[in-house]
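Section 5: illustrative case.
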């Protein structure tokens, strides 16, 4: 028993050495633990499955994600995490989370995959999972969710520069994306359906009443979108955290009520949102506006260079 307790205490001391604010370098960590850098690295890697510098970098990124979700600026979080430049932090954050730090919202998942299950736990603690998940690389779903939200806002801002008659002009007579949604023949109609789809599915997920149809001018749609987007991101994060992709949702808003697998709902929203975003791009171009490709590669590259 004494040996086991001592082993746990020693691991705690090693973790303290890795995560101490005064130990940004490997040599500092090793000195704190009264070991050579070689033996310190070998012991930490053996006991945690992760090299000490990598463990420190990951946990501090998790803390930075939480801080940004709580309202910290990207700049403050970057320097608190030990980065020498904001640009370097944004690149590292994007590679780890699949979306830029500026897209982090309250309730966003902050834990990154870890072989040892060691994570930042706010405000200043560590959490160790009993059954840690394996590292699967970039979270592609998170990238798709945040790209969809950002791209929709971008298109709404583009449309805001159009005169009212151009915004509502019929450009695709008879165009219908989903039969039950009706025609989407103008920029106004496509953008309204783009926003309303999330509002409707969120009402089902949150067990709320069917939302009233709001104003559909670009400014009003942008306000509706910002509200729905924050709730949508939080809802998908919660589903992922609970591993609830296979759960079924009985949608009482349908007549008659229908049941849907939660994972298929998220896939449905992403699929038809992507279709509508490309459809409205074509309409914006026909109205004389320059519209980019809506490519998530370009979006992520652009966010990396925002700061």
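Designed sequence:
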């Amino acid at each position: 028993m004494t040996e086991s307790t001592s082993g746990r205490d020693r691991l705690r001391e090693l973790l303290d050495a890795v995560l101490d604010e005064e130990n940004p370098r490997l040599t500092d960590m090793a000195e704190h633990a009264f070991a050579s850098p070689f033996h310190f690295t070998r012991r930490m890697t053996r006991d945690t499955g992760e090299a000490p510098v990598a463990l420190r970098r990951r946990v501090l990124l998790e803390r930075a994600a939480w801080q940004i979700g709580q309202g910290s600026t990207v700049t403050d979080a970057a320097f608190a995490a030990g980065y020498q430049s904001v640009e370097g932090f944004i690149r590292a954050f994007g590679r780890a989370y699949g979306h830029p730090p500026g897209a982090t919202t309250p309730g966003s998942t902050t834990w990154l995959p870890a072989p040892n299950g060691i994570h930042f736990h706010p405000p200043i603690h560590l959490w160790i999972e009993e059954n840690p998940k394996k590292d699967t690389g970039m979270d592609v779903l998170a990238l798709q969710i945040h790209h969809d939200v950002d791209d929709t806002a971008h298109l709404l801002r583009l449309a805001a520069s159009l005169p009212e008659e151009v915004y509502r002009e019929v450009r695709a007579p008879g165009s219908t994306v989903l039969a039950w949604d009706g025609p989407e023949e103008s920029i106004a109609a496509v953008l309204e359906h783009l926003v309303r789809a999330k509002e409707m599915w969120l009402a089902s997920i949150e067990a709320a009443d069917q939302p009233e149809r709001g104003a559909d001018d670009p400014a009003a749609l942008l306000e509706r979108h910002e509200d729905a987007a924050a709730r949508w991101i939080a809802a998908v994060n919660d589903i992922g955290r609970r591993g609830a992709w296979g759960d079924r949702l009985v949608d009482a808003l349908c007549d008659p009520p229908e049941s849907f697998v939660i994972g298929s709902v998220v896939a449905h929203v992403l699929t038809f949102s992507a279709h509508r975003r490309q459809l409205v791009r074509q309409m914006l171009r026909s109205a004389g506006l320059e519209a980019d490709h809506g490519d998530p590669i370009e979006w992520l590259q652009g966010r990396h260079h925002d700061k």
